[in-house]
Amino acid sequence: MSDKSLFDDFNPVSAKEWKQKIQFDLKGADYNETLVWESPEGIKVKPFYHADDNVNSYKVPVTSGWSVGQSIYVRNAIVANGKAKTVLEKGAESIQFIIPSDDIIISELLEGIPLEETHIYFDFHFLSLDYIKSIQDFIGDFKAGIHLNIDPIGHLARTGNWFSNLKTDLDSVNQVLDLEFKNTLSIDSSLYQNAGANMVQQLAYSLAHANEYLNQSENVIEKGPNITFKVAMGTNYFFEIAKLRALRILWAALANAYAISEECHIIAMPSKRNKTLYDYNTNMLRTTTECMSAVLGGTNMVLNMPYDAIYHKDNDFGERIALNQLLLLKNESHFDKVNNAADGAYYIEQVTNQLAEKALELFKQLEKGGGFLKQLKDTIIQKKIKDSATKEQKAFNSGEEVLLGTNKYVNELDKMKDTMELYPFVKKNSRKTLIEPIIERRLAEEVEQKRLNDE
Asked: Is the domain defined by 67-351 classed in CATH 3.30.465.10?
């Protein structure tokens, strides 16, 4: 067999030559106006990318595969335990337990679950050292697979209030760190995406959010726990892949500045922002591409969203379909066979570089302005997210941003009023808050409310 490469007979073609050929074929039409478009993040997307573009590409930290996750809201510990065992038998590999109160007994919740082979993620609606100690007492030597996901700063951003106050919450964080779980802190980046922040903002705010823990607690640096980022994925397929890659680059740069582990753990889930009440089956298509972006972007775990999650209570059918979407990606589409599959894709690498650079610049501006907590208190971050969300809402209202079945190709015969079990719109809850909370809002809410009123 010859050692000669197939491409040895072809002369290399430069990016300049490709562009000249395209301009010739355009027959006088302007190259930039015809073929170049600009993303909401200010990134100009070209019609082709070349090796010449990737001279200064950043190295993305390597990941070691991804797991299929299932989220379970715990109303009753014994019932949730049974559900967890069932979904593990059906193919789930990781479980996220949403714990609403400290009345949930950990021994009942985790009894019989194979902790040595199952990653357990917690989402606490409270902050209690004693409760964390009860987890420690039960799990014994299986700490490595336990992710506590404690995030009082994220709770402040979402609700407008600390669990208690700044000092007490951070003291609790330090005390939990002393228990030496490997995975303690999380950064809830999904809030920013679901509220309408563009990708540069999502990345910069996530980094600044993480930096507050590093600034506020020397224990975070000394203990060096892995940071977990919770990330919501939208439908801009290639950009979302690049977003996760840029997040790893940015965290590695920040961690390196503090001389701590550059490793981070990413939980990815579909965005709520583009999900629709009408023509709801299209949500299955959206969540599929979003989960694909998450896997190709290098997530560690994927939590899918049932297609009917915004208007139905938890149900076996919706959850089964959501789980099977992930199992199809892993077992039939073989999305588990290659790590960092996007490496070498010039387009994705260029978008990754630009997202990272733009987010780093915004992060530096945030730090010069006093940091994440100060800018939250001054409502600067809230205003910036609202500005971005307003631009996206205008694009949706004008039809420039399309949600099939909602603002294009609408089925006027579709009726939803009698099938709703949950209120799918922003709920107004008048209460006193320390800061203005960041509010998640779906793009289709106004249109859907009007259609419901007209049914």
From this structure: no
